[in-house]
Amino acid sequence: MIQFNSFSLKNGLKVIVHEDRSSPLVAMNILYDVGSKDDDPVMTGMAHLFEHLMYCGSVNIPEYDLPLQMAGGENNAFTNNDITNYYLTIPSENIETGFWLESDRMLQPDFSRNKLDIQKKVVIEEFKQRYLNQPYGDVMLLLRPNAYRVHPYRWPTIGMETSHLESIGLRNVRNFFLSHYAPDNAILTLSGNITAEKGYNLSEKWFGPITGRVTARRRLPEEPPQSEERKLTVERNVPSDSLYKAWHIGPRLSEDFHTLDLLTDLLAGGESGRLYNRLVREKNLFTEINAYITSEIEPGLVILNGKLLKGTDMAKAENAVNEVIEELKNSPVTENELEKVKNKFESSTVLSNTSILNKAMNLSFCELLGNADLLNSEVENYRSVNRKMVTESAGKYFNPENCTTLYYLSAPKN
Amino acid sequence: MTSFQRLQPPIFPVNAGINIPAELISLSNGMPLFLIKAGTEDVMRIEFVFRAGIVYETIALVATSTNMMLSEGSVNYSAEELNSILDYYGIFLNFSAEKDTAGLTIYFLNKYIEKVLELMNEILFHPAFSDRDLDTLLKKRLSWYRINKEKVQNLATDNYFESVFGSNHPYGRQVQESDFEVIKSSFLREFHKKYYNPEGMTVIVSGKIPEKTIGLFERYFGELHLEKTSSTDSAVPIKGSFEKKKFIEKKGALQTSVRIGSATINKRHPDYPGLKILNVILGGYFGSRLMKNIREEKGFTYGIHSSVSSLNLSGFKIISTEVGKKYTKKTADEIYKEIRLLQTLPVPKDELDVVRNYMSGEMVRMFDGPFALAESFKSVWEFGLDNNYFLNFINKIRTITSDEIIRLAQLYYNIDDLYEITAG
């Protein structure tokens, strides 16, 4: 049970404090409710580029990192399709430095053309390093726009292409800030060696004076239901053929989310999943195979990917995958198998919550979903899934007309 | 209304509590068990360490494959059964075979402690090494190997180690595709018998350790026969390549991977803490000189880092980055420029203060919570050192002078001695 206090400032900032005296540190997490789904479709990659710009100084502080390091702190951030999340850990005696830094860049980051140009170059190198110059690195650039036709989940967080990043100007960046970065669009969580009272007072002192600015309401185009099978084949300079499948599922808060999460664990959790046992150990068709849900807030995907053993025929491999899936739809899983994936989930949750930083991030995200206390009921939610629910969910979603398949083939060497 | 002045809050000195509460227990057969009692949740981490790293193998892939096969079936369970049971009890396993040590780290809920120890005895001392499961593993590893050979990062790193430690020494030897055809299960059995010996095992337990833990260890590990065996260090001397520069061409690459560095001292040397501090200034944190110059001022890369690491028989320093192809030469020149600056001009007081405080904060993080304590403990125990290493380190962080940094930069970063490996 993770105890916490929560309150809202007048400007709309939500604050959560979880006290854990066993650590000499405090973790401070600020989640902004903005992700790559909020990118302009002709300027994708903006939310993530903006995260980089948040480190380029702010109205009263020329450099973010320097004072933080001076105070013994460390920080990082990530952007995904749904959120932009900034976090730091710092010895508790210096937590006020964290408040000073984070509130100043919420108030007004310092944008200059030179800094924007440099961060655009940095992010384009990141694009190359992680997506373009990496075997199988472009998979999400291929799979997403086929699985989604209109919804902004059709591009990955890094963006659709580097030219989008190149086209971003200072005015776009300023507008993006005004539309998304404001106290009423953020959740601040403190976890570790800090009392709720101190957390509240410091929040009031540093964030309280920032004027609330009602950010634009989000209006995302809804993805129409997929009605026929989608297939795509590409050839790349990679050593082995790979198979990817994506099925549409509901949003993060839909009733069967936990069932589907367990279902993918049954298929591919650890080295005891069905896919691994059947297709890697027994039939020797794949060298590895994995399945997971994207866990996104808007309607997401179950993604399956497998690397074929050299010389295996793609059609044969795909049939074998389909057989495992069909079996899940047609016959109930055993009680023992279901218990296994539930136990594993419980274990991973408890272990994750040994870190003050994980607790801060998890509380923030649960609050965004509607209530930080969801964190305390997650294990119970997974425990309540039964065998019938697993079979039903498999039957509901694992259908060819709901599926996008990518055949990622190894190009013949000339 | 007067507007609120956003003045910087005072910064208080950070005092890391340098103390690892490790208690040494010997089981009745003499097996050493270190207990680190800390934490508030009912979870534990246990690390089983053996001197069974890559340095002990005479045939490539043997040390790593032996390690990875431990959970692929045992005398009592098939690979499928064993993995199913491990998952059923929610156990997270990290197998690792490093250059010197190898072993297994597990994380689990305390309520399963008894079952966990029973299973660990099975995994560590009764693996099956079946031909079928070894074949599956090797196919998987060969697939990873081929994918890694497509990555400029891996090409550069593999060639860096080969250049620095020599192609014949296990620290530097590169795996070849033909190595996968040679491996047999009998090699693994032999390696396991020799190096995964109960006599050579050390156990580091951390977390909220229940009272009954020692009794359970006694039951599952206390009766193992400890047979004295001598592990033999590699007979091959470490000998770096004569060629200091090497370029590996990768057609179609969009970036070049750069690795610059050489062999160096390790944790047992009195200069090591100072060298670590110098490394942080150069490229060891976000505000480092390399990061500021190459990323934040020039935008050549997503990231550039330098590190100094210890091995049992040596140590090494390495500067790593992936840069746009056209920036390769400029990047290397800038790296050498930054090294020369550290060799000639004193580090300004302000910068040194930032590094002192940043590293003090890092020390706090290294001792925060049971699992971090266990990792810190292992990192010195492995070299025959103890808490004094950390006390010396924190003392050095507080007292190092800019003159000493110049001395260390001249002594350990002689540019003519550095290897420059590029792939792209």
Task: Please describe what this structure looks like.
- By secondary structure, chain A is an alpha+beta fold.
- Chain A folds into 2 domains: 5-207, Cytochrome Bc1 Complex, Chain A, domain 1, CATH 3.30.830.10; 230-410, Metalloenzyme, LuxS/M16 peptidase-like (Cytochrome Bc1 Complex, Chain A, domain 1).
- In chain A, 42% of the residues lie in helices and 19% in strands.
- Chain A has helices spanning 46-53, 65-70, 95-107, 113-132, 139-147, 162-166, 170-180, 196-207, 257-268, 274-282, 314-330, 335-352, 356-369, 374-383, 387-397, and strands at residues 5-8, 14-19, 25-32, 74-79, 84-91, 186-192, 230-236, 242-248, 286-293, 301-308, 403-410.
- Chain A has a 6-stranded mixed sheet with strand order 1-2-6-3-5-4, with helices on both faces. Chain A has a 5-stranded mixed sheet with strand order 7-11-8-10-9, sandwiched between helices.
- The termini of chain A are far apart.
- The mean pLDDT of chain A is 96.
- Chain B is globular and about 65 Å long.
- The N and C termini of chain B lie far apart (60 Å).
- Chain B has helices spanning 62-68, 79-88, 113-125, 131-148, 152-165, 179-182, 185-195, 213-221, 272-284, 289-297, 328-344, 349-366, 370-381, 387-399, 402-412; strands spanning 22-26, 32-37, 43-50, 92-97, 102-109, 202-207, 245-248, 255-264, 301-310, 315-324, 419-423.
- Chain B is an alpha+beta fold and 424 residues long.
- Chain B folds into 2 domains: 22-221, Cytochrome Bc1 Complex, Chain A, domain 1, CATH 3.30.830; 245-423, 2-Layer Sandwich (Cytochrome Bc1 Complex, Chain A, domain 1), CATH 3.30.830.
- Chain B is 42% helix and 18% strand.
- The interface between A and B is large, with 79 and 75 residues.
